[in-house]
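PROTEIN DESIGN WORKSHEET
SECTION A - STRUCTURE
LENGTH: 120
TOKENS:
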């Protein structure tokens, strides 16, 4: 079997990723299946974290999971690799209503009673 070619890092440097998150996840899933199809979940998790890049490793770990995800950790079917995918999806997902939040931010104006030199 030929060695699998790793995908480009998701976040090599700070800023906006070059690859959309959904596309990157599909590419990584194919890479992990090709490189470590019969490997243990911990080895698959290591491959996943290796493909994040330098800045991507600052993503939260399992101690910072949302409450809904914490409950699924008790199940026997959830392994380390699947748990890492859930954590990364929750961390890199855009906030709900991001378009609305951005529009509200752009509509903000300075209060007429305040001067630019006033403190908040």
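SECTION B - SEQUENCE
RESIDUE ASSIGNMENT:
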């Amino acid at each position: 079997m030929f060695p699998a070619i790793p995908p480009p890092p998701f976040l090599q440097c700070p800023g906006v990723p070059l690859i959309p998150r959904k596309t990157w996840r599909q590419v990584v899933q194919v890479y992990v299946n090709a490189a470590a199809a019969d490997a243990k979940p911990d080895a698959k998790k290591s491959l996943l974290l290796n493909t994040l890049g330098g800045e991507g490793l600052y993503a939260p770990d399992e101690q910072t999971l949302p409450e809904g995800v914490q409950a699924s950790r008790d199940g026997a079917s959830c392994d380390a690799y699947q748990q890492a995918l859930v954590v990364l999806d929750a961390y890199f997902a855009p906030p709900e209503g991001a378009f609305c939040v951005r529009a509200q931010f752009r509509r903000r104006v300075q209060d007429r009673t305040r001067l630019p030199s006033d403190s908040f």
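SECTION C - NOTES
Residues 10 and 52 are 5 Å apart (CA to CA).
The chain has a mean pLDDT of 76.
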